[in-house]
Automatic annotation (TrEMBL):
This is Sugar phosphate isomerase/epimerase. Transmembrane segments: none annotated. Keywords: Isomerase. Pfam families: AP_endonuc_2. PANTHER family: HYDROXYPYRUVATE ISOMERASE, XYLOSE ISOMERASE-LIKE TIM BARREL DOMAIN-CONTAINING PROTEIN. It comes from Sphaerotilus uruguayifluvii.
Length: 303
């Protein structure tokens, strides 16, 4: 096995701090020692640090890990009056924290607010305003469709308003969980300019479908698993291969909310993520695709 090539391919994949329990420094150490070179961070990683935001930023810098992106700005678009002004203030602070970290991508999720307008032109205008706020800081905004979003809940809808906004640093974020939860056809990925895909987040889950919006939310927040561990390995393989064939060469981040993993030792969880990254880099992207689920049956490679 060509370990140099594996390391190079695995560098395309990173972990998300939301998967791991414990202090930020311990998370960063576990991710680095598992062989990853990048990390997706959340605002809580900074503001929740006992020594403050500056100390958290320094810990990330000291880790040597590249920051995949910063999350997450929620319920931004489609609001009016004082609600809109409030969200502008929140967005400005999120952008400043992302800049401190050296993050090049800020993730924004489609609104779930009952107060948000359904007007696509209004949504596009707000996203344009958000992107323009980020532009002077060298930050791109990835707009992601939440599968329980009020007006935008599938990635083709997110792409439509991003196209409408027509801003140089505004693109889409693709999240496999939300695609599988809504059973959205992968063929529509061909409509998206690959240069406008700023982030791809990968995860799986253990049942074929979510039967209600509440089950969709609960699964997303508590029961995701790493790629190759769930029942959607075939669809996830197809997703990654389609993106690769389109010319996407950006980052993949494992966004895995899992209550069980939050109770387990960090090195163990990070090694599971590493196994998933190796499966994707060597099994899927080499076009030698294993049967769905076989990644779980393979003995772990040591060293």
């Amino acid at each position: 096995m060509d370990t140099t090539r594996i390391a190079r391919n695995v560098a395309d994949f990173g972990m998300d701090t939301i998967t791991l329990a414990g202090p930020l420094e311990a998370k960063l150490r576990a991710v680095r020692e598992a062989g990853f070179t990048q990390i997706m961070l959340a605002a809580r990683d900074l503001v929740g640090h006992p020594d403050g935001v500056d100390a958290a930023v320094q810990a990330v810098r000291d880790s040597g890990l590249r920051v995949t992106g910063f999350q997450v700005l929620r319920d931004f678009e489609g609001l009016s009056d004082h609600l809109h002004g409030y969200k502008i203030d929140i967005a400005k602070q999120m952008i400043l924290m992302a800049r401190q970290l050296g993050a090049k991508v800020l993730l924004a999720c489609s609104s779930t607010s009952v107060h948000a307008s359904a007007d696509p032109q209004r949504i596009a205008a707000d996203l344009r305003k958000l992107a323009m706020l980020a532009l002077p800081h060298g930050i791109r905004v990835a707009f992601e469709a939440l599968s329980w979003g009020r007006h935008i809940n599938e990635y083709p809808q997110a792409w439509e308003v991003v196209e409408m906004a027509d801003c140089p640093n505004l693109g889409v974020g693709i999240d496999s969980y939300h695609i599988f939860a809504t059973d959205t056809a992968l063929d529509r990925l061909q409509e998206i300019d690959p240069a406008k895909i700023y982030l791809v987040q990968l995860s799986d889950f253990m049942w074929q479908q979510t039967r209600s919006v509440q089950e969709r939310i609960d699964t997303a927040r508590h029961f995701r698993v790493f790629p190759g561990e769930g029942v959607h390995s075939g669809a996830l393989t197809e997703l990654v291969l389609k993106l690769d064939a389109m010319g996407y060469r950006g980052d993949y981040s494992f966004e895995v909310f899992n209550d069980d993993y939050q109770q387990l030792p960090l090195p163990y969880v990070a090694r599971r993520a590493r196994d998933s990254a190796v499966w994707l880099a060597e099994g899927v992207l080499r076009r030698s695709v294993p049967l769905p689920g076989t990644m779980r049956l393979r003995p772990r490679v040591q060293g």
